[in-house]
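ARCHIVE CARD
Drawer: 12
Card no.: 0347
Subject: one protein chain, sequence and derived structure
Cross-reference: see card 0346
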Amino acid sequence: MDEIISGRVHAVNNFEIGSSHDIKILTRRAEASDADAQVELGNAYAEGDAVAKSYTKSAHWHRRAAEQGSPEGQVGLGACYYLGRGVKPDPEEALRWCRSGADGGCLLGLWYLGLFHFAGVGFPKTMSKRCVIGAKLRNRGMPRPVELGLELLRKCRR
């Protein structure tokens, strides 16, 4: 669940990071415009995985992938904007990038769009009433996606 909460998105060709040597290889690939490597490097910086945690560098690498049309990069950048990690929080930019990623086939993008509907981000304010309804439904044993959405909202409000 924490991977979803953090906004971490894995590229199609997952790259297992285990050492600084792996980061060097990944960085060379990312600098050579490999969008999958850019997404994975963005993830590494977001999580502090074999590198010092840096949300600014995470947003940078997700942006490079997003601008190349990578759906995973677009959702990663959208998550950065939504969570205010490495960029100024901007719900409209978050919605725009997550929508692009979802349109490109990234399932986490669809999840974020559902969350935005649920939270009323970028949609009519009456949609925010769903937060109250969602909490009531959760108390009645709603499926896990609703619980994940509520958990993300709680973490984002801290």
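Annotation on reverse: The two ends are 17 Å apart (CA to CA). The chain has one domain: 2-156.
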